[in-house]
Amino acid sequence: MTSTRTYHHGDLRRAVLTAALDVIRTEGPGALSLRDLARRAGVSHAAPAHHFKDRTGLLTAIATEGYELFADALADAPDLRERGVRYVRFATEHPAHFQVMFQPELCRPDDPELVAAKDRASTELRAGVSGLPAVRRGEDPRLAGTAAWSLAHGFATLLLSGNLGGAVGERDPEDVFRALTALTFEADGTN
User: Fold this and answer.
1) What is the 3-state secondary structure (H, E, C) of 34-64?
2) Any residues with CB less than 8 A from the CB of 114 and at least 6 apart, and which?
3) Measured distance CA(156)–CA(147) in Å, rounded
4) pLDDT tens-digit profile of 40-58?
5) What is the pTM of this model?
């Protein structure tokens, strides 16, 4: 005789999100299945759909949560360099969120909560560039922002994918990123 556990779960939404983040961290977003996540949470296979509707809804919720955590991580950084360091730290502390956030095809791009969270994170990113002296921002501050974003995102992505082992070694990745920004941006003696 088999029994299906269909009892009420205290916080099913959080349990499914946590299980999904574990799957993404170890196997990637392609391995997600609502049925498997329900099994992991000990609920009926239909239960996660009540919170997320479908797999895309779940991934949208993960991206939204990621952007909110990301904006929190960037808030109040004293300067552009430290925003970059916090960017790298966020990626290493939240690799599953990071993976989903930057694969827009996985999510519903028009989801209002996702749009709001992305806007908030973008505002925090732009704040680092707006704190630069005008001469450092150039004629188009968006290009300075793109350069800073590219450096931080590229470093974080290479780090997470294991491609910086030789360059980073046993050193703290945040210290390596600070050194990298010094090599890249301090040739003229400014920060």
Assistant:
1) HHHHHHHHCCCCCHHHHHHCCHHHHHHHHHH
2) 60, 63, 64, 67, 107, 108
3) 14
4) 878 888 888 888 989 999 9
5) 0.87
